[in-house]
Amino acid sequence: MLDKLLPALIITRREVRDQLRDWRIILPVTLLTLFFPFLANFTTRQVLGFVEKYGANILAERFIPFLLMIVGFFPISISLVIALESFAGETERRSIEPLLSSPLTDTQLYLGKLFASLLIPLVASYIGMLVYLVAIFRSSSWKAEPMFLVLIFLLTAVQALVMVSGAVVISTQTTSVRAANLLASFIIIPMSLLIQGESIMMLWANYPVLWWAILAQVILAGLLVRMGITHFNREELLGREIDSLNLRWMWRVFRGEFVGKAHSIRDWYSWEIPQTLHRMLIPICWMTFLLAAGTYLGAARVKEIGITPGTFNLDALKTVDDAIFTQFRQLGFFSAGSVLTIWWHNLRAVILATLLGSFTLGVAGTLVLMLPMIIIGLFTGIISLTGTSPFIVLAAVTMPHGILEIPALILSGAAILQV
To answer: Number of structural domains, the chain?
Structure first.
């Protein structure tokens, strides 16, 4: 395995050498590496001096790790620019032909470009973090635990890996750096939201959540790398000169995949549907497991939140009278119009999940579909505090409409994961 990856380092060496000759890359990396840690250290001293006046030293203790993460993030942001230029820039400079005619495999070419985009910004990021740590150790009494340093350094590495993995995928599917930069918003916006969430966890000192964030980003980066290698095509890189939106081609592909070899509706149901379900067997199993896990997590949260039978006067639920049915009837639960309302709500949820899943490798779409089951699990756990069997409550909440809705959620989620 290692022997197959070693040729990729030839591409990495070539790319790194070219990057070291380009002042447009070296200058920003150097400034962010050397200037920003001292700026962060100055900010830290000002914050320490301010909070010590009011005895809020805990704010300073939480602020230093936050700035350490930010110091590491700024240099790796350069990796996004390098990765976006990796293949699209070669295509614009007409230097892609010698590269693609080399005896290296597609995987070796792809990984070589990936490593080259990652190496210099990540090294610069680590140097900047070390400079900031040395400055903090000399100017304050704050000391970092070894596991915390491992956490921060790993978090910085996986952030860079996710950005580079996504950017290289974009670079292979575009014909110009301009087009790649326009598509970079699909990486920048999710990563900025992720950084905000990680910053909140850092300020709260909720470090176990950050370990889970590292694991999630490693999985996401692996999926992006796998997707990039799968869709990497030398012939398309050489033959495609301009990006175009071919609606006729899109319709032909959609119709061909949707209809398949069926010549009638009967053939479609008897032949294409079973084949499609067979191909989606693994995603169907995963989605079934995730929905069941969401229901369990919702029910388990009842004890963690600390809800008791007296919190919502749950004993009153044991008495079912006409007043309760009247309230449900006023909400439209027993009218024919509510069927269309619920159907339209579910359809919008599936459409939203599909759109989100297409940009997040199915992650956000799956979470959207899990949300109703988490709410159902939470409601079931609350009602079961009255002594009612949770299975009876779950059946009452999900049946009979769940006979159609739950399989629809499973199939929709499986399709999102399959894509």
So the answer is: 2
